[in-house]
C-alpha cells in the first residue's frame, strides 16, 4: 500500500521540520497539528502541508486530525516536564484514534536504551510508550535514535554556545553518545513508510562514531573558534549542577537528564548496521555536517542555509 496522506505529531519540532520537507518532495500530503499556529507558521512554506491548531491530547481533535489520513508519524518527545503525558498517554490516545478512524500504519520515535528499569523517567516513559505502540496491533515501526544532530538541533548548537564561556564546569563529562544526523533519521522514516519489511520492527539508530560528552562540547567549541577551559565534574557535583540548573531560567539541564546520561546512548561504536543494512544509508559523520551548519549562526545566514539544505 502507498501512503499519501500522513499526519505528523511533533511535526513542528526539529526532526519534524526536516521530515516534512523530505516527505513533501515525495508528493505526500501532510497534516501537522500545533498548539500555536502563529509560532509554527514557518511550516506553511512547505508544499502540500496543512497546519492545524489542535489539542493533540483531546480525542475530538484527534478524530478531526485523522479524518482521511492513511498513516501517522509520532515524533513527540520532551526532555523535561510531564513525561507520562507526552510519552505514555499520548501514544495510547493515538493508537485508539487510529483504530477509530481506520488508520493502520504508525511510525513512532522512541529513544535509544528506553525501557523499564532505567534510571531516568525519560527513558522509562519512552520505553512504556514504545511498548504500547509495538503491541497495538497496527502496522508499527519504532525508531530508537541516539542524540540527533543537524541544522536547528538543540544539542550540538547548545554545546557550541556553551563553548563560548571561558570556563565551563561540565556535568557527566564521560557520558557516551553516538550522534546521528537528522538527514539520516528522516530518510529512514521516509523509506520505511511504505516498506512492509519494516512493519512490526524496532530499529536502533546511531551514527558512525562514539563520543564522550566532553568530546562533543570540545568539538562544537572548536568548530566555532573557541577553546573553553572545561572542568569535568564528578558524580556528586554533576548531580548538584543538574539540580541547580533545573530551577534556573532556561533550564539547560535537569536531574532527570543527569540520570539519563548514566546510560551510554550508543549502539555499536564500530558498526551502525541498521542504517546501511535496512535502508542503504551510509551514516553521516558529525565532522562532515556540523562544521557547515554551526558556522551559520546569524539569522539570515541560518535561514539561507536551511533552505539550501532542504533543497528549496
From TrEMBL:
GO terms for molecular function: protein-containing complex binding. It comes from the Bacteria. Residues 10-147 form the NAD(P)-binding domain. SUPFAM superfamilies: NAD(P)-binding Rossmann-fold domains (SSF51735). Signal peptide: none annotated. InterPro entries: ComplexI_NDUFA9_subunit (IPR051207), NAD(P)-bd_dom (IPR016040), NAD(P)-bd_dom_sf (IPR036291). This is NADH dehydrogenase. It comes from Nitrosospira multiformis.
